[in-house]
Structure formats: C-alpha cells, structure tokens
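User: quick one - fold this with copper (II) ion bound?
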Amino acid sequence: MAAAVVVAAVLVQAAAPAGATTYTVGAPEGLWDMETDYAEWVARRTFHPGDKITFTYSRELHDVVEVTKAGYDACSNANNISAFRSGNDAVALAAVGTRYFLCGLTGHCDSGMKIRIDVVAHAAAASGPAPAPSTSASPPAITAAGNVNLGRTLGIVIVLLHALVPLW
Ligand SMILES: [Cu+2]
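Assistant: Sure. Structure tokens for the protein plus copper (II) ion:
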C-alpha cells in the first residue's frame, strides 16, 4: 500500500505538474525584443512539461513564430508551425522536446530575436511515462517484507494508472 501511494504521488506529479511554472520570455531583465540575449536567458532556466512561456511585446513591433530547427537555423518562417500576434502569447510546453521560436519581422531573427527551448523531463520521471509501471512493480526495498500485498498493490497501481492515463 505504501508503494502504491508513493507511485501514485510520483505519477500525479508527472501527469499534473503541481510545480508548473510560467516564464515570461526575456524577463525580468528583458522581454521579447531586439536586445535580450535569449541563449543566455535560456541557459539560466530549466523547462519541464507543463510549464508555459509567455511572449510579451508590442504587436506593432514584433510577432512570434514557432518554427522547425531548420527554420530556426536559417531564420526562416516559410514552414512555420504556428504564429502568434497578440502581444501577450502564452505557449504551453506540453511535452519533452525542443521548441524553436523567432520573430517573423524582417531582420529581427537575424539580429538575434530567436529562442530555443529545451523541455526536459521532471527528475522524478526522467525515464518517461512508459517505463514507470515496471519501476513501480519492483521496488525490492519496500515489498521485501510485504510480498503478500504485492498482488493487491499491483492492482491498485493498475487502477491508478487507468485513472491517470486520461490526464496525459
Ligand atoms: Cu521582432
């Protein structure tokens, strides 16, 4: 039972990030503008699934385009993934992976107005959602004294997994 509770806590943390953070791109020293050093800004932060980034800017001066790595490298938004123009655009970092954004106005990306965001797994779920059940099914330290309860614990874990899957 204790194992199930621990597993449930870990899974809940991974599925519905209680510690999700919203980052305003460039803040507090800068914003989404021509002056901010985004590589330096990114290097001081760690992004996890569930976090959000917000681009805040004057919509007369800038926009935000999500692009592929090729688009990022070439400062091209020809094959953009999505575009934002509200001046206050929140982008959810839903999954592990790398996201690329740039300003689509002529010359702005070439002047450095582009940002690469690496979204990395939470430490507790570093191996990803898939391997989690096998890890939870064999915690020797916890179940060594309670093998009788292992079957019931596994049942609870499976029920919890079924309940949590829609949250992903
Ligand atoms: Cu711009």
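One thing worth noting: The CA atoms of residues 91 and 168 lie 17 Å apart.
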